[in-house]
Batch of 2 targets.
Target 1
Amino acid sequence: MYPESFQKLITQFNSLPGIGPKMAERLVLFLFKQNKEKINDFIDALHNLHDIKLCDTCFNISQNNLCTICSNTSRDTSKLCIVEESLNIMPIERSRAFDGLYHVLGGTIKKRSSEKITTNQLLKRIGGGNFKEIIIATNFTTEGDMTAMYLKQELVPYNITISRIVRGLATGSDIEYADDMTIRSSITNRGDFS
Ligand SMILES: [Zn+2]
């Protein structure tokens, strides 16, 4: 048996996505061997998570009520890119292929229920906004495809150009893991979809 505090930390790591019990043990042992300064940095970084919130407008993770993208006046406010998670924004930003605004859904449509994702806020935003083009950048998974189709249908009444980024040549299905070149070409070659 491990000491109680050691075991408690293992349980915490094990509760994270993709971390099994053996990996959790290894991580805790690794941390245990670090010096006090390193441990304190780790604790501070975790503690500072309390200061992070969701942007009031686009639901991106943010330090303030408005995220750095929404508060940047040089962005093209006629274009809106819809992504599943905040993690999808960074690779698109890195590719420099898009200079508009974003909307983070917070997930995908599951079993035709959209209650938990921010689609209502999205439609309200589009209704009250000045968007000329909506780019759907959900992942190329069954749920991502389903979500893209759902959004396309919901957006018909708004009479705005709707496109979807195209599937990259040699990528996995998640935008999060695609390289800059692939993302750039999938945004540049965006188009209608069905
Ligand atoms: Zn924002």
Target 2
Amino acid sequence: MSVRAGIIGTGFMARVHAQAIASGGHHLVGVAGSTREKAEAFAANRPATAPVATIDELIGLRPDVVHVTTPNALHREQAEAIMDAGIGVVVEKPLATSVEDAEALARRQGDVPVAAVPFIYRYYGLVREIRERIRSTPDNRLWMLHGSYLQDWLAGVDQSNWRVDPAAGGASRAFGDIGVHWCDLMEFVTGHRITTVTATVGNAFERAGGPSQNRTEDGAVLTFATDHGAIGSLVVSQASAGRDNRLYFSFDGPEESYEFDQQLPERAWIGRRDESRLITRNPAKAAASPVGLEPVPAGHPQGYQQCFNDFVADAYGALRGTPSDTLPTFADGLRAAHLTQAVLESARTGSAVAVPAFTGLADRVIASALAVSH
Ligand SMILES: NC(=O)c1ccc[n+]([C@@H]2O[C@H](COP(=O)([O-])OP(=O)(O)OC[C@H]3O[C@@H](n4cnc5c(N)ncnc54)[C@H](O)[C@@H]3O)[C@@H](O)[C@H]2O)c1
């Protein structure tokens, strides 16, 4: 059954969400921008989409779900307005710019039909395949979890964006913006949870026009330990020349290791002591069950937008009463906020910082969300 959706924000992510909504045969009934003109420009080639100036007008269209694609510091207030109206909500990552705000939203997750956060790298076919292999070989104890998430779009000294301003983007930039994607993916694929973090943050240069104090990091280096006894490391940067969007992981065990690179998502490396091999994505032969829309066949590369389409299909399935154990929810958004806080605290104090367990509030929130949807 088709869903009536709204979007707040008219930038990069709003376009990606709009395509994902359309790909599932759903209807984008309204869009709200920072100004009516921006909303009108966004709706110009979308005749069924009403451009509006405020979130209240958007809610007044009574959509089934609203997607929040605005700068991070606006997420809590906008999500609360949507949830107050009993409408489902998809809020871009980071869910909020503080643990307090993320927790306030996660507590209410069960009050609305769906409350999702687009950690969309979970939706690559080979990510699912690696996850399935790890689940089916518990004796291969993964003990070394490492990787990086590197970009270069903020590598120019005069390059700026609202993310550079902590008031709009939050106190952490590189980790809060992209490091959280890697951590979500690692925990989703391996089933491990980070228990302690030690982090150092750094900057490539003094950014032109940027705040000289209270600046946010261009990069971070983390070491961590997990609840399954693994150790690991993560390097995050938004100022590494030539790295467009390189999210890479290697999850290593004594029998088998697994490697994946988001920029080459049709291949994954399975390492063994006797023989290593590359596997290619092939839905017809995959062990992992597909999620979302009809998967694109082998040899027809799946991309970022397709992951987004499948995420939205998963979220709308939940909205229509089919619970999903792969859907990233507000509980996962809260998890990311806890990790971000731990990274900043460790960088400030120079000490290892404990990360709250994923039990407690987050699990209670999931339990109550599932109880509501049954
Ligand atoms: N899940 C992902 O893979 C992914 C990727 C990129 C960005 N994001 C997240 O998406 C969000 C948006 O990022 P972006 O790259 O699209 O930024 P962007 O700057 O391209 O877009 C932000 C939009 O919000 C609008 N806006 C600002 N204030 C507003 C207000 N009060 N009301 C309505 N609209 C307002 C701006 O006009 C702009 O159109 C961020 O939270 C970011 O972290 C997620």
